[in-house]
Amino acid sequence: MAVYTSVPVPALEALLAQYGIGEARTLEPIAEGVENSNFRLDTTTGRYILTIYEKRVDPADLPFFLTLMDHLAKHGIACPVPIHDRHGRSLQRLCGKPAAIVSFLDGRSPKRIDAARCAALGATLASLHQAVGDFAGYRANALSVTSWRPLFEACRQSPTPPSAELADTIAQALDDLERNWPQALPSGVIHADLFPDNVFFAGDRVTGVIDFYFACSDRFAYDVAICLNAWCFEGRAEFNLAKSRALLAGYQAVRPLEPAEIEALPVLCRGAATRFLLTRLFDWLNQVDGALVKPKDPMEYARKLAFHRRVEEPAAYGLD
């Protein structure tokens, strides 16, 4: 989440007039994340989140995202629920851009990540994967392995390209991933961006999952690999085996991984690290003037990728 677009009062009033959620009291920017403009919206009937879709989000994908959230909420996954206007529409236009209002979730993103919270996250992720079993929507993963080399080339063509050492690391990783990326694994809709700031907790209990705007159809085990990267490393990219073991145990208690998924985990983890290294690098080299957000350090994921490239067996992640 971030803020790239300001909302004039008349535009907000015109938007709310289409709904039955009262009049605006306050609209506060949420200056976190990197993709969309987000606001905490308080009205005379309650609190909501207003999102204006920016940057990488294709407007054609928005019905998929909003329908997915409706589906997951109906299947017991605590996630934002799109608010529908008086005509049943959840997708709007605001300031010339696509926008939506969703329900507000209680809870906070964790400031401290421990094994108990990793276990709870793993169980929640597995429940989400089960909940999409009867979801009819499909969206190709626009940031999967086939997109990484073009993104790398875009970074290399920047006025301030990456160092020769980093470029060589990424090139070697891409050669490996393109040769070895697994194909025939259990698949369905995945979150694809389940970082700690997209999960709310009360104590060690997950109270909500947010930010589904990278959700797509892909391998379930790749979603697990993304979470291992996001949740199981310390400040200088030191891998925490206890957290990884807890996350995987929590996941498998709900949805056991198949042998082929376990075997593929090292390459999927390398792929997840490469994906976030490249998108962070691109954002770092192409910063938006005036945005109330600081791009994240791509070198964090270069260090994580270095760890995964040393892994030879799935047991290194805490799997027996």
Task: Give the arrangement of secondary structure elements.
Elements: H1 9-16, E1 24-29, E2 37-43, E3 46-52, H2 62-74, E4 92-94, E5 97-103, H3 115-131, H4 145-156, H5 164-180, E6 187-190, E7 199-202, E8 205-209, E9 216-219, H6 220-231, H7 241-254, H8 259-285, H9 299-310
Antiparallel strand pairs: 1-2, 2-3, 3-5, 4-5, 6-9, 7-8
Helix pairs in contact: 3-6, 3-7, 4-5, 4-8, 5-8, 6-7, 6-8, 8-9
Describe the model.
By secondary structure, this protein is of the alpha+beta class. It has two domains: 95 residues, Phosphorylase Kinase, domain 1, CATH 3.30.200; 203 residues, Aminoglycoside 3'-phosphotransferase, Chain: A, domain 2, CATH 3.90.1200. 41% of the residues lie in helices and 15% in strands. The protein has nine helices and nine strands. The strands form three sheets. Strands 1-2-3-5-4 form a five-stranded antiparallel beta sheet, covered by helices on one side. The chain has a two-stranded antiparallel ribbon with strand order 6-9. Helix 3 packs antiparallel against helix 6, helix 4 runs parallel beside helix 8 and helix 6 packs across helix 8. The longest helix has 27 residues. The mean pLDDT is 93.
